[in-house]
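Risk register update: the risk of archive-format incompatibility is retired. Evidence:
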Amino acid sequence: MASRLPSTMIDPPRGVPALDSSSTGELLAFERLLAELSAGFVNLSTTSVDDAITDALRRIVGLLDVDRANLIGFVPQTGESYLTHSWTVDGFAQAVPRAVSGDFPWAMQRLRAGDSIVFSRLDELPAEAAADEATWRRVGVKANLTVPMTVGGRIEGAIAIASFRRERHWPGELVSRLRILAEVFGNALAYKRARESLDSAMRFERLVSEMLAALLTTDRADDRNRVIEAGLRDMALFLGAERATLWERIGTSPQFRKTHRWLAAGVPVPPDRAGGVAIPWINAQIVAGSVVRFASYADLPPEAAADLPALRELGVRSLVSVPLTVSGTVVRALSFASMREERDWPEALVPRIALIGEVLGSVLARDEAHRREQEARAQAAHATRVGAMGAFVASLAHELTQPLAANLANAETGVRLLAAPEPDLDELRATLADIVADERRVVDLVQKLRRFLRRGEVERGELDVRELLEDVLPLVEREAQARSVQFRLEVPDGPTKVVGDQVQLQQVVLNLLSNAIDATAASDRPTREVAVLASRCDDRVSVEVRDWGTGMDEAALARIFQPFFTTKPKGMGLGLSISRTIVEAHGGTLSVHSAPGQGSTFRIELPLRPSRHTA
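Archived output:
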């Protein structure tokens, strides 16, 4: 066997004969090709780079009279090497894109170190290249020239030229020029990646902007949930994932529960809870505020071994999960999983995923805060109604006394009629009818009290303003009489309809009446009166509650609707704040006019219900 030559020749070794005329012509032709390709790649569009590289490989094969030219790319994150572009002459099998590190371990190591792989025949290879030599023999390679491809001083791949039909010599000048061409390819690919990354970032920004705009213009929680799930779908498709999940942390535990999810077609539905038992390492990392990211199980550390059974059961092959924090505490997590193939998650994706997670988390946090505020207001409103119960329980007792007394008298009359030798059936029927009517009145009064005191969902319907006011006035009538305060009710003739929740609007009027009674009772005017004045104007109806009490100064007026501000010694300062919230929720306004010594007028304005005959 011939002696083995150095495997990393860039320039011809000393003693190599000068180039003959055919080699010189080959080099000159290659230089012209190099000049053409360099100029052609300058203004090339990103969509044309791959085709241009493949065509350049074809021209190289034809110019050098070889049989195959390949372009190999290195993946820094995994250390893998992939065949990305290739051209093979007719008569030989075409090379397909694939991972090649396992077939050429020695060559890939030398190329990553910046060395060229040059041999004119296989027996020039060193002993440590045995695995590579076996692959080349199996493929049919007789001579090879492979040079590293550098971009900005970093090695990102290689160009490989192979001869199948014959052994051949590779001049050092050709090796040098091929290195230059490799840089041209590398720069073109780097430009393509940069533009694709920019385009990807812009598409991502559009996704985030569109989702945020949709969330900000959506009022109903159900609609927001649909927007979030659609956003997860778009993000998953953008990232090439088949599962996207937004998780909520369960208290301070290392467990999370699903709040929103998107699954690709055919992907099995996983459990709604990610427990610390099933995937303890992943959950611990998320709770600690660390991003979990792996393209394959091989990327996971040994301490994540306990998570592998659950990951396999769930069908997760690749995963990226980003913690979402509020005030330094992890409260949510956003994860994307690949189920059908292993997928790399570039580092640049992590802040983008965190950004979309923060957008979603902020919206959900706002909804949760709004829900808690509504619940607190509902509790305060209920407490206000319960507190007001004492004011009209006496009135209710007064209202019940009459029908109950009448029932007792009618019942005694019925007993007396039945005891007669010949009962007067007509009289008995009339007596029983009176008892039924009085019982219905009692039931109606009790139901009215229950409706007012209950806590429940808002029930909106068509309401007549006159009926609304006439139902509320008896509830405070006894209190007003006890404090020598009279009511004056003025309502326009004809139906005056609004749409709203009867109990809530009754609560507003009751609160204003109670305040007016307190203010009027505290004044020293000889005539103590509270006026309730309703009127229509265009498409609105107003209800004014006017007292002639002590009034308020400008400082009190500026704060009168603020929570917990009150002018009463024992007041809670919530009634007017809750009342304004209720009126505004009905599309109306609650305002006040007052001056010291001149009393106060609180004015409710609500949209008038359109007539059914309006076109």
